[in-house]
Design brief:
It is flat, with a radius of gyration of 26 Å. It has three domains: 3-86, Four Helix Bundle (Hemerythrin (Met), subunit A), CATH 1.20.120.140; 101-307, 3-Layer(aba) Sandwich (Rossmann fold); 316-469, Signal recognition particle, SRP54 subunit, M-domain (434 Repressor (Amino-terminal Domain)). With 496 residues, the chain is an alpha/beta fold. Helix 6 links the parallel strand 2 and strand 3. Strands 3-2-4-1-5-6-7-8 form an eight-stranded mixed beta sheet, with helices on both faces. The chain contains 23 helices and eight strands.
């Protein structure tokens, strides 16, 4: 996400770097490029206009034109203005004591509202809370059944010691549209059921429409009036661009929404909604959906998003994801093996499985400073991991412990057993050994040195090779990137 915007913003600001002195004209010319980049990213035009002028005034006020490092000064100003544009935000869910905390979820049909209810429930389950999902969408066919299945799935498979249940009255679906207030009554009984059973959080999954109309708003206002929710979250599809901002404004006017949850955020290559919604509507983004799984829900932190946009990565979010998957003991054991160069294929596959649970690989790599821009044109194929695991499963325990045992006959056997070919197995062996070597070399380095190494890899190497050396062999398959090395370009020039 933000690949295109990040590249254009950093390119525009880079024009100021290396200058001993710049003028107001230089600043305004640079911001003209920023303006174009923001508009292309589908940021609301009023937001773009105000943002660019605010940056210019900040730059002149802080005397960037006389600074010894104007480029760095400008990046700092833009970074702060991006943070201000999207914040402030009290991310997460505000819980009340005594409970239950009542959360009302609303949104248009197709925004991913029911799935998001499950994600929020999983988020709370991981924090040890008892959650009840109330099936208040009696209009959409099978909506009640979908929420029941979602609750069962989250309760069974999501992390944490909490509990997730579903309160549903499927027999009331037949009364919807013929009996006044049937949805409101279901919500009231759902909340009362939660109080009796000492539930910590109640999530009301209300009905949506294909468009905003008075009938929908009347029903939602009724639910709000009779249940008095502590927080109202609006679920919005980030892929619909400025229509999402308009929808947020309308819902906020009618219901006084407390926060927005952006779904499909990982698929929104432009990112204009994230930069527009707070300034235009006054409603902060609380969460972003970054995948289909129940744990693919992140708290929204403006400072981290700003850092991603400016190509500075998001190490804090990456560390938080890693802490959820790796115990301190496992991390220490793996670190020792990597430092000594004794990490086996089994160790690597276990690490790989944990990394896969953290999210799409391209998204994770994009959180490393300087790496996201290098991967802009790389098509990262996460299915390659399935082939890597298949190759590993076809190896004996001895071969996993000592990959140097693999000769031609063994490689052929592994290829046949894994449904791959010998070249793929050879590539895995080569990249695994390369990764072990690099891990050993970096083991004694500090964080700064490691990040420097990753930046060097990102800027000076073919992205596919970089991915393999970054500890993830086979990340990109053959022919999966449009990017070609400089070597090929030089050869073409020679022939001319």
């Amino acid at each position: 996400m933000f690949e295109s915007l990040s590249g254009k913003l950093t390119g525009a600001l880079r024009t100021l770097s290396g200058r001993g002195k710049i003028s107001e004209k230089n600043v305004r010319d640079s911001m003209a490029e920023v303006r174009t980049a923001l508009l292309e990213a589908d940021v609301h035009i009023d937001v773009v206009t105000d943002f660019c002028e605010e940056v210019v005034q900040d730059a002149l006020g802080e005397k960037v034109t006389t600074s010894l490092k104007p480029g760095e000064k400008m990046i700092a100003i833009v970074n702060q203005r991006l943070i201000d544009l999207m914040g402030p935000v009290e991310s997460g869910v505000m819980l009340v004591d005594p409970g239950p905390t009542i959360i009302m979820m609303c949104g248009l049909q197709g925004s991913g509202k029911t799935t998001t209810c499950g994600k929020v429930a999983a988020y709370l389950k991981a924090r040890g809370k008892k959650v009840s999902l109330v099936a208040a969408d009696l209009q959409r066919p099978a909506a009640v059944e979908q929420l029941q299945v979602t609750a069962e799935d989250v309760n069974k498979n999501a992390k944490g010691v909490g509990e997730v249940t579903c309160y549903a009255e499927p027999e009331k679906c037949g009364e919807y549209g013929t009996t006044t207030g049937v949805t409101i009554d279901v919500c009231k009984r759902g909340v009362n059921h939660a109080r009796k059973n000492k539930i910590d959080v109640v999530i009301l999954d209300t009905a949506g429409r294909l468009h905003i109309d008075e009938e929908l708003m009347k029903e939602l206002r009724g639910v709000k009036s009779m249940t008095s929710p502590h927080q109202i979250f609006l679920v919005v599809d980030a892929m619909i661009g400025q229509d999402a901002v308009n929808a947020a404004g309308t819902f906020h006017t009618q219901l006084a929404v407390d926060g927005v949850i952006l779904t499909k955020f990982d698929s929104d290559t432009r990112g204009g909604v994230a930069l527009s919604v707070k300034r235009v509507t006054g409603v902060p983004i609380k969460f972003i959906g970054t995948g289909e799984k129940f744990d693919a829900l992140e708290e929204f932190h403006p400072e981290r998003i700003a850092s991603r946009i400016l190509g500075m990565g998001d190490v804090l979010s990456l560390v938080e994801k890693a802490q959820e998957e790796f115990s301190d003991e496992d991390a220490e054991n793996l670190a020792q093996k990597m430092a000594s160069g004794t990490m086996s294929v089994t160790d690597f596959i276990n690490q790989l499985k944990s990394i896969r649970r953290m999210g799409p690989m391209k998204s994770l790599l994009g959180m490393l400073p300087g790496v996201g821009t290098a991967l802009k044109n790389v098509q990262v194929d996460d299915k390659q991991f399935d082939r890597i695991e298949a190759i590993s499963s076809s190896m004996t325990n001895k071969e996993k412990d000592d990959i140097k045992l693999l000769g031609k006959s063994r490689i052929k056997r592994i290829a046949n057993g894994s449904g791959t070919n010998s070249s793929e197995v050879n590539r895995f062996v080569k990249q695994f050994e390369m990764m072990k070597k690099m891990s050993k070399q970096m083991a004694g380095s500090g964080l700064g040195s490691k990040m420097g190494a990753m930046k060097d890899l990102a800027s000076g190497m073919d992205p596919a090779s970089m991915a393999g050396m970054a500890g993830m062999p086979g990340l990109t398959g053959r022919g999966s990137t449009k990017t070609k090395s400089n070597k090929h370009r030089f050869k073409r020039r020679k022939r001319k």
